[in-house]
Each structure stands twice: as C-alpha cells, then as structure tokens.
C-alpha cells in the first residue's frame, strides 16, 4: 500500500525558482523578488544526468593552466577600462544597465568602433533599432570602422549564426531583453526568454573566448529587468547613471570578477558623442571673479577618485507658517539634520527662513564628508559673509556638533592643492595625513564651532 507524505502547516511546500523564497502555499507572485509564475511545488528531486564516459578536456593542476588568455585588452575608452580594472577580458560577459536615454548604446557603439580600429573583429547586434538608424548614430560620433559588423536581429538563433559566421573578438548585444529564442516559450524580455538568451550568449562567449557586452533594461525602481539569475550568470555588472538635464554620466561596477567595484568612470554626453572625463571637477565648480556668500567647495570621493564639487545655499525670509526646505543634489534628510545642528548647537535662528541647498552641475553628493561644507555654506549665507577664496572643506558632522574623520583625507588635500586651492579645513584625526604639499594650508577642526570661527576669521584676514 502506497504511503502518503504529510506536511505540517508550517513546512514550506512551494519555492521560487528565481530567488529561492519559500512559502507554505502557492502564490502567483514571489513575495521576495516579485516575479510572476516562478513559485513551484517542492517534490523529491531525482538526478537524471549520468557521468560522461570520455572527457575532451581533462582537469589540470592549477599551476599548469595558462592564464595569459585572460589578460586585459584595452577597449580604447579609458574611463571604461578604469571601471573594469584594466580593460576587456577575453571570454568575459559584461552586463551594462541603465535608464532609457542615458547613453548606453552611444557608449557601446564608441567602444565597438575604437576596438575595431585596433584590427579586431567586432559584431554589434541591435534588437531595438534598424541597422540604418545605428549607422546614422555611428556617423555622428565618428564610429565607422572597417572591421565593425552590424546586424539587426531579434531571433537568438540568427544572432548565434552571425557569430559563427563572422567569428568576432568582441560581441555587443543591444539589448538582451529584445532577443528571443524560438525553442522556448514566452515573449521577448520574459523570465524564461532572458534566461535562455543569457545562457546561450554566455556559452558561446566562453567557448570562443570572446568578450561580450550586453545592454540590460532597468525597471522603475532602478533594478535590472528580468530574472535575478542574469546578474549571477554574467562576470561583470555595470550601472550607467546620469540626470536627463545634465551632461555628466557615471559608470559604476556593481559586480566584477576581474577587478575592483569601487571605481567610477565619468563621461560627458554631447551631440558629437560621449567622451571620458579624466578630470571632471571643472563641471561642478563655479568660477567667479569675486567670492559669493553661501557657497563652499568640498572634496568628495566617487569610488576611489577624489572629486571637487561646490555646495550652494540660499536663505531667505519666509511668509509661510512652515519654512521651505528645498534640496537638490544632496541627501534631503541629511540636509535637514545639518539645519537642525545649526539651529540647536550653533544657535542660528533659521525658523523664519526658507533654505535652498544645491550642488553645481547636477552632481549628486551622498557622502557624509560633504556635511562640513554644507554647514559653512549655510552659515555664510546666514551672515552674508563669503568664505575665504581658494578654500575647501570636508568632514562628517554629528548631531552633537562634532566633526568626525572621513576616509582618504590626504588624497583629498592633494587633489585640492592640485587644482590650486590654498586653504583646506579637515577633521582632526588620530592618524594625520602625511606628505601634504606645502602650497596648501591645512586647518584641523573637531567641532562645528571651531570650524565657523576659523573659516570666518580667515575671511576677515583676507
């Protein structure tokens, strides 16, 4: 007589095939990754695959494996190479995600043209535009090359056939959500199709030792569309960000099997194409003849790169019962905390004033090291006294009014000196930076009161 397996009410009987989330009853949508139709009933799993009788490539001792084939090859775009750790690795699969219109296709078309000019064969597969539309963009950004091949395909099988025919050294697919396989069910961009397309492209990339760049769409909340498995399968995941009304674009590596994930690439998107910015600080600083009250320069870190940016503030009398607190480019809750510190600790009455705090050039400053510059800019606007010229400040401010140390103080000071600044206000640290240039005078502070006294004293002397 067959025995019946019983489950307790608290025993998970269903599991999501995408993220592994378990539940005691079936649901149509996963409660963890929010994917539809991926929750399946758990059952006894029996292995069906048997061991192969012959092996084409036997395992070797790790010391005998040739690693030269996995060396970096420069892409021709320095900022992309910086983020990747040195360049494109043969056989590596890179996923580039970003919002519509941010410049993903323009960047990869530029990479394709520069790589092709080195003599390598490049295949650009577009599923969103026609070949003629891509060529128009290539002519606009000077992206025409003899060994750059272009095809417009939405069928995965035809795209794989193009790869076998052309045998490229670099493959670019724009985008992975537009390709579909006729051998699996579902529409292009669905969970099943994206999984099949990614697995097929990764398989051919590893087999042919071909570097591959995949464009990925993002959802409304900024996450990569499709199954989370896609991010696990690829070798590198990069995020391309930028404000629609700003020319600046930032490239970050979220995952990188071949290099660091704390580097940031800066690009300038113009009508003539996209260009790497080795020194983007000039975009975020206003150059005026005379100092203006309410502004302060700071040095923030984007990855491991020091970036000089300007914080601007404006305080004006309000006619409303509740003063307005407007913020652009800075974290709004942190800015509200800084206003509270000024009100409670520095005894500045801001209750009847509207406050406007913004950055220059559309840059987003989320690092706490910008706190000190924001406080000095607000105090400067409050008293209508400009800060000293050629002056920078950075440091984290706590609720007690203390100024806390931040990472890489020495590197920030050196970057400020390189750009011509003469004064720097930094947090007091138990490990003071070494090798500070003599051309810049450094003031160390441990509280907001000390910072305000030194800043406006130096302004009086100047």
From TrEMBL:
SUPFAM superfamilies in UniProt: P-loop containing nucleoside triphosphate hydrolases, Ribosomal protein S5 domain 2-like
Domain RecA family profile: 69-218
Keyword vocabulary terms for this entry: ATP-binding, DNA damage, DNA repair, DNA-binding, Hydrolase, Metal-binding, Nucleotide-binding, Stress response, Zinc, Zinc-finger
Signal peptide stretch: none
Biological process (GO), any one: recombinational repair
PROSITE patterns listed in its UniProt record: RECA_2
Residues where ATP binds: 98-105
Family to which this protein belongs: Belongs to the RecA family. RadA subfamily.
Role: Plays a role in repairing double-strand DNA breaks, probably involving stabilizing or processing branched DNA or blocked replication forks. DNA-dependent ATPase involved in processing of recombination intermediates, plays a role in repairing DNA breaks. Stimulates the branch migration of RecA-mediated strand transfer reactions, allowing the 3' invading strand to extend heteroduplex DNA faster. Binds ssDNA in the presence of ADP but not other nucleotides, has ATPase activity that is stimulated by ssDNA and various branched DNA structures, but inhibited by SSB. Does not have RecA's homology-searching function.
Name of the molecule in the record: DNA repair protein RadA
Source taxonomy: Bacteria, Bacillati, Actinomycetota, Actinomycetes, Micrococcales
């Amino acid at each position: 007589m067959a025995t019946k397996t019983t489950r307790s009410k608290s025993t998970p009987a269903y599991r999501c095939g995408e993220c592994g989330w378990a539940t005691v009853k079936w649901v149509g949508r996963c409660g963890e990754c929010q994917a539809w139709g991926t929750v399946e009933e758990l059952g006894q799993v029996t292995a069906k695959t048997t061991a192969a009788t012959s092996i084409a490539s036997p395992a070797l001792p790790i010391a005998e494996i040739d690693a030269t084939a996995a060396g970096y090859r420069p892409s021709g775009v320095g900022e992309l190479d910086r983020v990747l750790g040195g360049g494109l690795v043969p056989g590596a699969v890179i996923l580039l995600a970003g919002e519509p219109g941010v410049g993903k296709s323009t960047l990869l078309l530029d990479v394709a043209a520069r790589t092709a000019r080195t003599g390598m064969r490049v295949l650009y597969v577009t599923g969103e535009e026609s070949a003629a539309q891509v060529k128009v963009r290539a002519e606009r950004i000077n992206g025409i090359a003899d060994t750059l091949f272009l095809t417009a395909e939405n069928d995965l099988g035809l795209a794989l056939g193009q790869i076998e025919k052309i045998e490229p050294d670099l493959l670019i697919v724009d985008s992975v959500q537009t390709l579909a396989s006729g051998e699996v069910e579902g529409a292009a961009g669905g969970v099943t199709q994206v999984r099949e397309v990614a697995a097929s492209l990764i398989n051919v990339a590893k087999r042919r030792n071909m570097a591959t760049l995949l464009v990925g769409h993002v959802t409304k909340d900024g996450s990569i569309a499709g199954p989370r498995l896609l991010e696990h399968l690829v070798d590198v995941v990069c995020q391309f960000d930028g404000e629609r009304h700003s020319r600046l674009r930032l490239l970050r590596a979220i995952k990188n099997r071949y290099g660091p994930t704390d580097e940031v690439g800066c690009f300038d998107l113009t009508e003539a194409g996209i260009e790497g910015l080795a020194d983007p600080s000039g975009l975020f600083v206003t150059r005026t003849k005379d100092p203006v009250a309410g502004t302060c320069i700071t040095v923030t870190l984007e990855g491991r790169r020091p970036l000089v940016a300007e914080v601007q503030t404006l305080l004006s009398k309000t006619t409303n019962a509740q003063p307005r607190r407007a913020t652009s480019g800075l974290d709004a809750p942190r800015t509200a905390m800084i206003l509270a510190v000024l009100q409670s600790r520095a005894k500045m009455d801001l209750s009847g004033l509207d406050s406007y705090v913004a950055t220059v050039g559309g840059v987003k400053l989320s690092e706490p090291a910008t706190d000190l510059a924001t406080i000095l800019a607000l105090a400067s606007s409050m008293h209508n006294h400009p800060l000293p010229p050629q002056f920078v400040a950075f440091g984290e401010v706590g609720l007690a009014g203390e100024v806390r140390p931040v990472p890489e103080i020495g590197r920030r000071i050196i970057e400020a000196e390189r750009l011509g600044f003469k004064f720097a206000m930094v947090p007091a640290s138990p490990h003071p930076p070494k090798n500070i240039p003599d051309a810049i005078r450094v003031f160390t502070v441990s509280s907001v009161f000390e910072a305000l006294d030194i800043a406006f004293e130096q302004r009086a002397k100047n």
